[in-house]
Structure formats: C-alpha cells, structure tokens
Amino acid sequence: MDLVLSFVNSHDGSAVDPSRVDRFMDGEHYRSWLAERGLPAEASDADAAAARELREALIDVVRTHNADVAAGRLAEAEERLRRMALRHPLTPVITASGVELQPAQPGVFGEVLAAVVELSLSGKWARLKTCRAHPCRWVFVDQTRNGSAVYCSPGCASRAAMRAYRERKKASSGPATP
C-alpha cells in the first residue's frame, strides 16, 4: 500500500501545498524519489517520463472508485497499464505459506504493479480514491465504514465546503442593481 500511495502521490500538488512538487518531473527528481525508498536510483529523464505515464494511468483508474473519470479516459488508462504490464511482467512465487507475485525483472514499475495486484486481491484497491477537492488529486485510502469518503483530509473538505458556500452566496445575491 505504501509504495502505491507514494508512487501515485508523487504528482505536483503545489496549488494545495507548496512543498508538493512533481517527484517525477525529470530524471534527477525521480532518482531522488527512488533513493528515498531504498530502490536502485539509476534513472534518466526517459525513465521519469515512463513513471509519469504509469502514475497518471493508475490515478485515472483510481478515479473510477469515485465515479470521477470519463469512459474514454479510463479505456486509455487501462490500455497504458496493459502495455506497461507487458513490459514489466510478474511471476508467481509459490511457497508453503501462499502465493505472491514478484516482478520478473528488477525495477520499480514491476514492484508497483505487483503491489496493485496484491491490493486488488485483498479488496483494498477499491478503497483507494482521489480527493475531489480541486486541484488536490491526492490519492488516499477511504477508511470509512461505508466507503463514502471523498476528501483526503479535513483541510480539503473545509476548502471545498467554503468554495461551495461562496458559490451559493454569489448565486443568491444575484446581479447588482444600479
């Protein structure tokens, strides 16, 4: 779960929090992100671009958990994930205690895809959602009993409520009369 959340939440969130920069904007930032997680930190700008592609596809699929993505965009995301899975295949490892999928070749993309499969098999994948507060897009785990959370934090919920209040106030005041 931690690897998947860290991967998808590596996008630019500076509109909400100035410290949230795109960790995959280039090879240097991507190498830093890899090193922070103890992963092999050899990465180029092309690797960072591939990481952005995987991240955006995963975010689009997670957005469907909120019913928040167009069908065409979802189809594109699923196709990108299929292509990525072909390039980074997973191998079942069977032991006396169970079965797990591991990347057939070393690399973070296979690790992320294996983690997504495990989340799906455990039923936790559907609990990942994207924050509805514009422009946040932060992916979070919905821990509510009925799976109805739509905001990643009380701060985002508060900002969204204030924005809605201002819109209602503006709409109710109508046009100014001279």
Hey, roughly how much beta strand do the residues contain?
A: 5-15%
Number of helices: 6
* C-alpha termini separation: 58 Å
* Order of helix and strand elements from N to C terminus: HHHHEEHEEH
* Strand order across the largest sheet: 1-2
| Number of self-contained structural domains | 1
Describe the main β-sheet briefly. 2 strands, antiparallel
Rounded radius of gyration (Å): 19 Å
- In one word, what is the shape? globular
State the helicity in percent bands: 40-55%
Q: Give the low-pLDDT segments.
A: none
Count of individual beta strands: 4
Average pLDDT, rounded to a whole number, is 88
What structural category characterises the helix and strand content?
A: mainly alpha
Can you give me a brief rundown of this structure?
By secondary structure, this protein is mainly α. It has six helices and four strands.
Describe how the helices and strands are arranged.
Elements: H1 2-8, H2 27-36, H3 45-63, H4 71-87, E1 90-95, E2 98-103, H5 108-122, E3 128-130, E4 139-141, H6 154-173
Antiparallel strand pairs: 1-2, 3-4
